């Protein structure tokens, strides 16, 4: 390259370099100015944020919404973590933790009896009660697509949360027929899994089954007599042949176990269902099973009834009348109006009442025996009352064993359990001669509430006018003798269907041909026990828990399609320990079934040879005093006397296992430390003070 060319190249490169440096300098200075401007703006913002009203704050304060979201997030995260940890860790860890806190755990009854040498002997039949058995879908409407063969009742109840109205449509029965609505088929789950757990972690029969397994039982020697607990008892045979299936399975168990008879363990409403079965199986076909009058004698060793509502439960009245019990009424009081509103398309109370009123089996739980059993306007079997004639009957009785007849859980001052429903607290303490009651039965129901024709949920209440509602309240007091008249008045179509399947009286002459009708078969006061003198019948029930016995109601504010009657939760007794709290009268029992219903038949009605027990089947009662769990790690406890938790009571399970293993009720081994069946032949505990009242009222011989 020439010198001239080189010089030109150098001068060109230098000019470009200087130009680049000048541009860079300008850019840097611009960035600096922008940066300074940004800092100035930020400072202005900070100054602006620090206004006179909020000058003391250096950061934004959390709102209530932020706190709630944070709290819910923490609780939810902790819950899911603990749930994952609980399911992931070995089963031995919870047991180790429990033992570290409480000391060594007692052996479960099955393990204990296996060490004593007891083994499986008689086959066992388990009969679940109302709502505890699973139901699954076999045909449904379009909204139930994808649910074929899945559980609608029991398990996780996931479909209820996903599509509540569709779920309610499928779980309800037809108002006219008492069967499935057209296009829907819901059937009971079969096998032991039908009622081992009601929902995840909530056992029903699982603990009993596990302990039976400890002494050698397995599925071939156990049978869960599952049935659709929504249907009337006879309709379970009409639709599903459930009674025939029970008969066939019992016959199979006896045949495959060398002729050994079965031990039947019914629970709750299953007690009434099996009582119906025993009458059905000996009735000639086609009305019955055609097994003959000696079928029970040939196939059944013992019937061990658990939490038996032989004579019904007052809870059933409240549920039919206003779809309330104590817990629901308290919830309603804490959130006024919430359960009555259309929440997410679900008018909670009205839909629940409509669903419940289609389940015909619930009529079996209405109290039986009228005022003779449950008490009248001025007397009740549990306590001393106004009527001097009651005291006279007590003094003339030969059944009083001298035991304490005033064992009460609460203060019964001003309480008369004979009055099952009252409209106003004042009527609970006044003698019946001092107040008048209006007759409601002849009051016209024609003056319908305005806009009642717009009701989309059929309850029959929308057919009641204001005069009719007032007449019901003006009657003031309802006993077991008038409660059926009340239900017939407020829900005539409902009760017409119920009355065709169940009866609630006391038979004068059991040889009357009318008692051959199936509607009498589940009422122990209107049917005879089978001709099986070697069979044993037990009533095993819990005591020591507050159990609903009566209710104080008020008339609700009239509105379109509203349920016009509500439990008056504002009413309490005069003392802190009163049996009247939140509008509910409480007595002794297992939280669901009062002692009078669970114990009377085995303690008196069937004791010895009576007209209800002509063959003299031996009967026994056993009471289990409630003891709460010692700590949270015990779950629902091993000494609970609560209606369902009783199936996990170790003392009860031990009694069942001993009888199943071949023991008799008169066997000296069938004992517990504080109470045994042999002693109960001579003296009764909670039920004792009830018996003396009935001698003058109910002739059972």
From TrEMBL:
Name the residues that span the membrane: 64-86
Keyword Transmembrane present in the record's keywords: the answer is: yes
Q: Which InterPro entries does this UniProt record tie to the protein? A: AB_hydrolase_fold, LACT/PDAT_acylTrfase
Checking Gene3D superfamilies in the record gives: alpha/beta hydrolase
Q: What Pfam families does the record tag this protein with?
A: LCAT
Q: Which UniProt keywords apply?
A: Membrane, Transmembrane, Transmembrane helix
Q: Where is this region: Disordered?
A: 388-409
Keyword set includes Membrane: yes
Question: Any idea what this protein is called?
Answer: Phospholipid:diacylglycerol acyltransferase
Which organism does this sequence originate in?
Hibiscus sabdariffa
